[in-house]
Each structure stands twice: as C-alpha cells, then as structure tokens.
Design goal:
Layout: H1 11-23, H2 27-34, H3 38-45, H4 53-63, H5 67-85
Helix pairs in contact: 2-3, 4-5
Length: 103
C-alpha cells in the first residue's frame, strides 16, 4: 500500500458537500432529521467530531447509504492522523514466531 501524503477527507466534509449542500439542508435541519442535538451535527459537519457507529446508522438511514461507508471514511481519517501524529508506534518490534519443543 502506498503511503498518502495528504490526509483523507473528513466524513463531515463529504456529508456537507455531497448531501447537505446539494439538498440545501442546514445543520439545524440535519440535527432534526438525525434526532441529535444541533451541537452534535455541527461538530461532525465542521470536522470537529467523529462519526460513531450510532451516527453511521443514522446517516445511512437518512441518506440511503450504508453504515460501513461512514465508518470506513472515519477509520481512514483516524488512521492517517494517528500514523502521522506520532512516530512512536514505529519503534514497536514485530513479534517473531517461536519454535520450541514441548516436553
């Protein structure tokens, strides 16, 4: 797998550009549609919050997508940021298979 130089797009940006803007849905309307607070909807749309499994289910129902789409987008975003935020994880050594005779 080739390493990405730029981060994956946050699911909130995709939600905004592919669903909210084309349908002229406001954050307040989105919150009502999803049954969450305006603050929760705003955090995701403005890329300050993460898509949880519960939210993925809500988004998939509202926009006729799959929960895996939203969770996959969030996973890619989180993994890229974790891999690039710190290099400590690179110091971990691979566990080698042991060959031992049982008595």
């Amino acid at each position: 797998m080739r390493a990405r130089k730029r981060p994956p797009t946050h699911p909130g940006r995709i939600l905004k550009s592919h669903h909210l803007e084309p349908l002229s849905i406001t954050i307040t309307e989105l919150a009502k549609i999803l049954g969450v607070s305006r603050k929760t909807a705003s955090k995701i749309v403005n890329e300050r919050g993460a898509v949880t499994p519960d939210m993925a289910l809500r988004l998939s129902r509202a926009f006729n997508t799959t929960p895996n789409l939203w969770l996959g987008l969030q996973l890619e975003y989180d993994l890229w940021h974790a891999a690039n935020a710190s290099k400590e994880w690179r110091r971990v050594r691979r566990v080698e298979e042991r060959t031992s005779a049982r008595v």
